[in-house]
Design a protein that fits this description.
The chain is of the alpha/beta class. The protein has eleven helices and five strands. Helices cover about 45% and strands about 10% of the residues.
């Protein structure tokens, strides 16, 4: 879809892009091959836009995902996904709270469509820095407001990669209610992790710290990883749904991915015990994202 896009170029908005598509200019090569008289612009504008197409081809060859993400309208950044899919990382964090001075990241899960990596506070969190810089594009749910600022402030990382925040992509398609709500509406289940949310993840971390319960940490990691790997399926679904509003529906659609094996399993009995213990418990920040 990226090579069929013109709305990242100065002076071309969505309506003008649609005029190009309607006139048969469906991709960058079509624009370069078109005679000046066949383009819906003056000769001077056509030359300027052709220079922007040349620049886009050069930036794509250089694998500069951030160039396109920064140039696209916010609601259209999903278009970069397919071209850069081999350098995408799906990311999710768990924390001890909403971001108070004492709050910190407990776990991070990173998935690149092939393998899952986990980073745990007090164990290997320092390895996350080297891992995340390998990727050109990050996909999150609400990462713009939560995950990325938290990582920047707690770990001191720039997190300058191109970023697709599925919260906004899915909302534009009519899906809201947090990550779990979107999953449910799109038919993605959680099995034994059904009902576990961000607040519950805090209780799992406390169980791990207070009782040295490794099964609590494994359950937390299973939950964190589920959040992360499900982002790939949601990203592909959102990509295909967005294509329906373009002339490329049915031709550029992506197949749904197969979920990977999660290297940790959730302890159902532990989840039920913590649920019983905390059912009447509340925290001042309980309005935290529940996805």
């Amino acid at each position: 879809m990226l090579k069929n896009s013109f709305c990242h170029m100065p002076g071309i908005g969505i309506p003008t892009e649609r005029r190009l598509w309607t006139s048969g200019i469906l991709a960058w090569d079509d624009f370069l091959d078109a005679s000046p008289g066949s383009l819906p612009f003056s000769g001077r504008k056509s030359q300027s836009f052709k220079e922007h197409v040349d620049r886009s081809l050069a930036r794509l060859k250089d694998r500069d995902a951030a160039y396109f993400a920064d140039s696209m309208p916010v609601g259209q950044v999903w278009r970069i996904f397919a071209e850069f899919r081999d350098s995408v990382a799906y990311l999710d964090i768990e924390t001890t709270g909403m971001g108070g001075p004492e709050d910190y990241i407990t776990t991070i899960s990173l998935y690149d469509g092939r393998s899952v990596s986990c980073y745990v506070h007090g164990r290997n969190m320092q390895d996350f820095r080297e891992a995340v810089v390998r990727y050109q594009v990050l996909v999150t749910y609400n990462g713009k407001c939560f995950d990325l600022p938290f990582i920047q402030s707690r770990l001191g990382l720039g997190m300058d990669q191109a970023h697709i925040d599925l919260r906004y992509v899915l909302k534009s398609l009519g899906y809201s209610g947090g990550l779990k709500g979107c999953e449910m509406k799109l038919g993605i289940g959680r099995k034994e992790l059904e009902g576990v949310d961000g607040l519950f993840a805090v209780f799992l971390w406390q169980e791990y710290l207070n009782r040295k319960n490794e099964r609590a940490l494994e359950t937390l990691l299973a939950y964190n990883i589920a959040d992360t790997v499900n982002l790939e399926t949601l990203m592909v679904m959102a990509y295909n749904l967005n294509l329906k509003a373009t002339p490329f529906a049915g031709t550029l659609d992506l197949p749904l991915p197969s979920p990977p094996d999660i290297p940790f399993s959730a302890d159902s009995s532990l989840i039920e015990r913590i649920r019983r213990q905390t059912i009447a418990y509340s925290l001042p920040w309980q309005s935290r994202r529940l996805y």
